[in-house]
From TrEMBL:
Protein name listed in UniProt: DNA-binding PadR family transcriptional regulator
Organism the protein comes from: Nonomuraea thailandensis
Any single Pfam family the record assigns to this protein: PadR
MF GO annotations: DNA binding
UniProt KW keywords: DNA-binding
Keyword check for Lipid metabolism: no
Claim: Glycosyltransferase is one of the keywords in the record: no
Length: 175
């Protein structure tokens, strides 16, 4: 997730205070990893320095004085360019799962046991996502679906790798 671009997008919607940006970011994008206030303000400082946002005059509030930030035309151009680019297709051909299996085989360790442990970990996470889908909002359900689909693909890969483990072990020994 690109925090600066997400904040720019929120600012394109409407000028906002840092507190409001954090709240909106956490509501839509911060599931399981809320954005720290310090990161909000340091990011806004960099965006301001780079001419992508402007900070209004300090305004009195319920606490310390607050500034309302607004996106500039340069910031709007950056959001437009980012939204028009497709996200890189994942996964890549180098994965931690594959690396661990090959290294386990190279080192004479239990690759099948590792795959079983990984399968159990994925299934446990899928149960967590299922609970989120049952009790969460539409945003939660969509994010849980995304996570579950990735886990399902990993589980299929684990099954295929488990079935081919003997051949992979032979290849690794020959190398």
């Amino acid at each position: 997730m690109s925090v600066p671009l997400a904040l720019l997008g929120l600012l394109e919607r409407e000028p906002s205070h840092g507190y409001d940006l954090k709240r909106d970011y956490d509501t839509f994008f911060g599931r399981g990893k809320p954005l720290p206030f310090g990161q909000v303000y340091s990011t806004l400082g960099r965006l301001s320095r780079d001419g992508k946002v402007t900070a209004g005059q300090s305004e009195p509030g319920d606490g310390p004085d607050r500034k309302r930030y607004a996106i500039t035309p340069l910031g709007t151009q950056e959001v437009e360019a980012w939204l028009s680019e497709p996200v890189a297709a994942e996964p890549y051909l180098q994965t931690v799962l594959f690396t661990k299996v090959v290294l386990a085989l190279m080192l004479g360790r239990d690759a099948a046991g590792y795959l079983d442990l990984q399968r159990a970990t994925h299934l446990r996470r899928m149960r967590e996502f299922t609970q989120i889908k049952r009790t969460g909002s539409l945003t939660d359900a969509l994010l849980a679906d995304h996570g579950m689909f990735h886990l399902e693909a990993d589980l299929r890969w684990i099954d295929v790798t488990q079935a081919r483990l003997g051949a992979l072990a032979a290849m690794v020994r020959e190398a």
